[in-house]
């Protein structure tokens, strides 16, 4: 199953430009920067930045860019997956370094990649290869509250939003792209927003996706509770 | 007491050992020393019918608890767990076991995760005892409900849990069903029928009995297994709801050679924990149950008692400070089997206020005031007023440490 997005945002906010099914609240151009850079920003209903959202731009047919990124890291820190959402290209190898002082037992039973990976302290472990596109939900067999996501995509054009809610995808060849944004706490359309974006030769563009529904509450684990609840 | 202090020194010496690379073996230790001031009916632990752990005969320094909770990873999915404790108040053994079990947790291959525990462990009732070794982060003294669970209940048997892992399906919550089958819990009910409810942090150990004269616990009389069944819903760290029904299915007419009868005891417990913000915890439990002893053929002479209790707790945490306040309400009603001059009816309520101050990673100071009012007629047998108003002040100094050693298989 590829990461396909359903059409979701059905209303535009005032000032937004309707493009495809989504809202483009801002579509800027500036002559100084390189052509083909795209900045996708995700804002909550209240207008605050939403970090940790996976952004994938599906290349138009015929445009293929050799991928440069084939290894990535999904760390374990304070009994959380860091980052919570990781986007990798199909075929990437992901390391699980475990920076915690305790062991973890990472698993996935998601169809694109099923695996079981004990991350014991003091024991080396090899990276995990993700050969099928799709969403892989990670859990920990010791800490039920630990949940992480690896989004595996065939597209080389991807990123995740940072603290300012923005993801930068550089050097896109000109063409029309299908943009999808997925986050575990996005309610709009089951978590996925989509838009269509035309990338020309006239400079960087910013696409702003603004959620219409409130974000789901962060289940906020309490990292200080070292020996609580069966630890 | 002397051997307890040797254990303290031993535990402290262990913490000085350098940590090794792995954590195949994990140990959590607790040394808890108390300064006590009590104005209370003589404690049940010393043969009285009071509701607090300490009375004025315990004023001064006391050993609160020594505890070592050990987990050893046998394989990727199987761990051996044990909790050893000492209270220094006349245990048969100065260091005893409160729990010992193996826990099998296969990796989930679909959204339902199975778990199997076999050995001796607490039934999953308490929402207060969230820390290693069945310790509460909120108060020193447990609620009436969970004091009773700690005193008279240990599952010596097997528990099966199936948990639907909602996170994997895009939900924040987990839903679990749990069930247990066990033996060796036939005496459960004897203590509460005799004494009524209490609020202590003195659970029983597996092989030591409890109180004076000592009530022995955890043995089989009628060769009939008991069961419990429950459900739980968890929503991240924010919400947990648990309901459980317990029935030891004892034959109240059965007795052993020593003349000890089996107590047919059953209860239903429902509990909710809600953490609306990262600082605030609201917690409540309600329990009602029944206990019977004596053959069914005894008719009106069969002892039958109703039990009911609830509590509400609010705890506010800010940095190293935590303030917890709890209100408990409890009653028992003897409906049949009037063998004594006094009905064993208990009625009371309690207020607990506890302040916890964390001093770094290992040290903690807890101050607690416990106030219990109760009415229990059988106290007259001991020449004590049936109506009591007890106060217990405690200041605990706690040293807690975590150790790990040993690399794992594969
Ligand atoms: Cu973990």
Ends apart, CA distance between termini of chain B: 44 Å
CATH superfamily of chain B: Porin
- Helical percentage of chain A: under 10%
Number of strands of chain B: 16
Q: How do the strands line up in the largest sheet of chain A? A: 8-14-13-10-11
Q: How many alpha or pi helices of chain A?
A: 0
Short summary of the structure?
The complex is a heterodimer of chains A (231) and B (410). Chain A is mostly beta strands and 231 residues long.
Structural descriptors:
heterodimer, A: 231 residues, mainly beta, Immunoglobulin-like, 2 domains, five-stranded mixed sheet, 19 strands, 0% helix, globular, disordered N terminus, B: 410 residues, Porin, 16-stranded antiparallel β-barrel, 3 helices, 49% strand, binds copper (II) ion
Describe it for me?
The complex is a heterodimer of chains A (231) and B (410). By secondary structure, chain A is an all-beta fold. Chain A folds into two domains: 11-59 and 159-207, Immunoglobulin-like; 71-153, Cupredoxins -  blue copper proteins (Immunoglobulin-like), CATH 2.60.40.420. Chain A is built from no helices and 19 strands. Chain A has a five-stranded mixed β-sheet with strand order 8-14-13-10-11, with no helix packed on it. A four-stranded antiparallel β-sheet of chain A has the order 15-4-17-18, with no helix packed on it. In chain A, strands 16-3-19 form a three-stranded mixed β-sheet, with no helix packed on it. In chain A, a hairpin with a 2-residue loop joins strand 6 and strand 7. Chain A is globular. Chain A starts with 16 loop residues before the first strand and ends in a 21-residue tail after the last strand. With 410 residues, chain B is mainly beta. Chain B has one domain: Porin, CATH 2.40.160.10. In chain B, 7% of the residues lie in helices and 49% in strands. Chain B is built from three helices and 16 strands. Chain B has a 16-stranded antiparallel β-barrel. The model of chain B has no long low-confidence stretch (mean pLDDT 92). Chain A binds chain B through residues 101-103, 105, 107, 109-110, 114, 116, 118, 120-123, 137, 139, 141, 144-145, 147, 184, 190-191, 216-222, 225-229, 231, and chain B through 20-24, 28, 69, 73, 76-77, 105, 107-111, 113, 130-132, 137, 163, 165, 167-168, 170, 172, 174, 234-238, 278, 400, 402, 404, 407-408, 410. The site of copper (II) ion has 6 residues of chain A, from loops. The site of copper (II) ion (CU) has 6 residues of chain A, from loops.
């Amino acid at each position: 199953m590829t990461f396909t997005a359903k059409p979701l945002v059905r209303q535009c906010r005032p000032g937004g430009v309707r493009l495809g099914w989504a809202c483009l609240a801002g579509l800027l151009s500036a002559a100084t920067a390189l052509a083909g850079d795209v900045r996708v920003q995700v804002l909550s209903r209240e207008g605050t930045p939403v970090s940790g959202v996976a952004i994938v731009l599906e290349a138009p047919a015929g445009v293929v860019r050799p991928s440069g990124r084939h290894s990535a890291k999904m760390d374990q820190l304070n009994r959380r997956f860091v980052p919570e959402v990781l986007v990798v290209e199909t075929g990437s190898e992901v390391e699980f370094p475990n920076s915690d002082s305790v062991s973890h037992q990472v698993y996935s039973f998601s169809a694109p990649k099923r695996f079981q990976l004990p991350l014991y302290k003091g024991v080396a472990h090899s990276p995990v290869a993700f050969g099928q596109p799709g969403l892989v939900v990670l859990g920990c067999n010791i800490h039920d509250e630990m949940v992480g996501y690896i989004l595996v995509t065939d597209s080389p054009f991807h990123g995740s939003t940072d603290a300012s809610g923005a993801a930068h995808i550089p050097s896109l060849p000109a063409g029309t792209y299908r943009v999808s944004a997925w986050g575990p706490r996005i309610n709009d359309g089951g978590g996925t927003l989509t838009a269509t974006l035309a990338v020309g030769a006239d400079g960087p563009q910013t696409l702003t996706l603004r959620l219409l529904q409130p974000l789901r509450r962060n289940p906020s684990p309490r990292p200080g509770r070292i020996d609580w609840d069966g630890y | 007491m002397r051997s307890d202090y040797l254990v303290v020194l031993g535990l402290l010496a262990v913490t000085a050992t350098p940590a090794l690379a792995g954590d195949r073996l994990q140990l959590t230790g607790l040394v808890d020393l108390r300064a006590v001031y009590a104005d209370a009916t003589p404690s049940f632990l010393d043969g009285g019918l009071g509701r607090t752990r300490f009375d004025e005969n315990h004023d001064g320094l006391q050993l609160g608890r020594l505890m070592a909770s050990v987990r050893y990873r046998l394989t990727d999915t199987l761990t051996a767990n044990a909790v050893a404790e000492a209270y220094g108040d006349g245990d048969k053994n100065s260091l005893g076991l409160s729990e010992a079990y193996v826990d099998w947790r296969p990796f989930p291959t679909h959204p339902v995760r199975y778990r199997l525990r076999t050995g001796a462990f607490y039934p999953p009732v308490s929402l207060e005892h969230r820390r290693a070794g069945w310790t509460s982060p909120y108060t020193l003294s447990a609620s009436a409900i969970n004091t009773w669970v700690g005193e008279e209940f240990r599952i010596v048997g097997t528990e099966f849990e199936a948990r639907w892992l909602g996170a994997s399906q895009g939900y924040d919550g987990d839903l679990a069903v749990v069930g247990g089958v066990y033996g060796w819990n036939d005496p459960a009910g004897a203590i509460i029928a005799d004494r009524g409810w209490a609020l202590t942090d003195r659970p029983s150990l597996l092989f030591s009995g409890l109180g004076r004269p000592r009530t022995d616990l955890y043995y089989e009389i009628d060769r009939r297994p008991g069961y419990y069944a429950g459900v739980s819903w968890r929503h991240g760290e924010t919400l947990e709801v648990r309901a459980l029904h317990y029935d030891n299915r004892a034959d109240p007419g059965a007795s052993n050679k020593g003349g000890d009868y089996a107590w047919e005891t059953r209860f239903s417990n429902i509990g909710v924990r809600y953490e609306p913000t990262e600082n605030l915890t609201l917690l409540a439990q309600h329990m009602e149950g029944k206990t019977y002893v004596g053959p069914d053929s005894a008719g009106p002479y069969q002892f039958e008692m109703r039990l009911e209790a609830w509590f509400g707790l609010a705890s506010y945490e800010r940095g190293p400070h935590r303030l917890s306040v709890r209100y408990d309400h409890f009653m028992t009603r003897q409906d049949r089997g009037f063998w004594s001059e006094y009905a064993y009816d208990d009625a009371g309520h309690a207020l607990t206020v506890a302040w916890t101050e964390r001093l770094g990673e290992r040290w903690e100071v807890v101050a607690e005031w416990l106030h219990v009012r109760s009415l229990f007629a059988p106290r007259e047998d001991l020449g004590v007023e049936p109506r009591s108003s007890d106060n217990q002040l405690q200041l605990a100094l706690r040293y807690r440490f975590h150790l790990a050693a040993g690399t794992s298989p594969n």
